[in-house]
Amino acid sequence: MPTFDFDRPIDRRGTASLKWEKYAHRDIIPLWVADMDFAAQTVILDAIKTRIDHGVLGYSRPPASLVETVVDMLQQQFAWTIQPEWIVWLPGLVTGINVACRTAGNDGDAVVTAVPVYPPFLSAPQLARRELITVPMRLDDHGWHWDLEALEARLTPATRLLLLCSPHNPVGRAFRRDELIDLIAICERHDLVICSDEIHGDLILDPASRHIPTATISPAARDRCITLMAPSKTFNIPGLGCSFAVIGNDRLRHRFRQAMAGIVPDVNVLGYTAAEAAYRDGWDWHRALLEYLRQNRDLVFREIGRMPPLQTTLPEATYLAWIDARGLEMENPTAFFEAAGVGLSDGKDFGAAGYVRLNFGCRRALLEDALARMRQALKNR
Questions:
Q1: What is the location of CATH 3.90.1150.10 in the chain?
Q2: CA dist 307 to 83, 170, 351, 375, 377, Å?
Q3: Average pLDDT over residues 341-353
């Protein structure tokens, strides 16, 4: 297998990077937004250069070769057999979440999700003129879980959609088959559409875990599921804006397309090009990335364990650590760590004030520096 250098420093300052420009001209290491600092792999860059060398960057349809590549990828990665027509291309996964909220039910109906969760899950229902219902997740000795009893108790006759993040951002769970079966059973009893955000499905860090697409659990699950996926997190190409939904139910897919009509633009030509190169030729890099991220994950888990009163759990997936900072008894722990030179995501935005989220998708020396700053800040407080 080729070797890849994830330790190579790449200066992203002054490049209009969302992640790095947030703290421009300040000595703060940005470990917040889910954007890795690693360069895109050569096979992707070469494919983009070849497309650019053609010279024409006009409107594009999804290439047939890309559709075939995605169908093959889903079969190989997840033993998921789909039809090409089930794929709906999107310029971003967040777009898909918002479209899903407009697809299920009508104005005034309800959407349910569990917190903490990726912030667009909390904003999209209200933007779609739906009521948002949240159910706190449950933490026990085995990690974070959906609280199914609380979920069923919170549902109303107006609830039409369940938003699921699997693998979960920010808590890092890769849900087991039995957990998904139990969750789907509730959705069947209450006739809920499921929008399953599976953008981190290729980022399983725990060798004992695997990603199970929600729609593969049963034919009934497939018929009520909108699955959202993208190469953006897996191959670190989020700025190219190429995602897709897989919707096996013809009627549901038609409603989804109707909700997109007139407001969702097509994917750009370079996004298609990068996606095809990544899914076709990017898996050696991906395997090396997972090993590097595992070591970063273990470093974070070990070091946070030495920083009382902070607490965390070992992520099974993603490159994100969810840290309980409530023991600091501070109104704003994010500001505390920013003052120490580390930029983290505020748990309040995920529906869980007092927590922070740390992105460990960066070179190890930078991560070690950030953890040292956090440790020193705790000693000095």
A1: 18-41+283-380
A2: 50, 20, 24, 6, 10
A3: 98
